[in-house]
Amino acid sequence: MHGLMHPHVLDFDLTFKETTPPNGPPSTASEIILKPDSSALVALTKGNPGAKPIQPGGIMIWPVENGIEAQKPAINHINDVFLQFGSVWVSDDRLFITDPSFGAAIVSVTGTSVTGEKHITIANQSAICWSAYDKRTGKAYAIDAGKNVITVVDARRGQKTATIVVSLPDIAQMPELFDSVVVGERMYSLAAASGIVVTDLSVQAGVRYVDLSRLGSRQGWTGMAACSAGLW
Hints:
- This protein has strands at 29-34, 40-45, 58-65, 68-69, 74-76, 87-89, 94-99, 103-110, 113-121, 128-134, 139-144, 149-154, 159-165, 177-183, 186-191, 195-200, 205-211.
- Mean pLDDT is 87; it is low at 1-5.
- The chain is 0% helix and 44% strand.
- It is an all-beta fold.
- The chain folds into two domains: 1-121, no CATH class; 123-221, Neuraminidase (6 Propeller).
């Protein structure tokens, strides 16, 4: 994160009271991500579509200049996006967001302003939470944490193009899919409490389950990242 050279406590101007531990997903913080060009730091918070009145989620932006982020964020709300859960950049200024209340959305981030671009309703989804992006193909992926299903979205047009039902012949009860990352033609997804499901995106099928139980309990772990072997 070369764009952040002056660390300090970020001021989250939340419109809700988050408990300790959090009681969510509604009304909790989500992700903090840096824009691809390092010009801003972006944080997402979940709203509550069940509240009266409905509470939209928030997208906060701290501009970064000369490696220093602003003290106060600009706060944006998208009226039809409520539970910003997972997010991934699909270009320098377009953000793909998963929302378990309806599916996914693409928003444009210009300076400190956010505008809705595409609202993608995904029928029969259980709990679409996580997201991933394949820069080679321009496809974004909405990953269901309630069942073993991945929805494929053309990120350029903002349209759903396919559904991948992940199954493996040696696993009778497929686990749900959680945080994921795309490397080449394969997606690696945290699954259950002790494994990783590998999906071949070129043939849209699961190809392997990696059992990590021998590493000990990892209940509650979240997050997936990939790095080049050349970095080690």
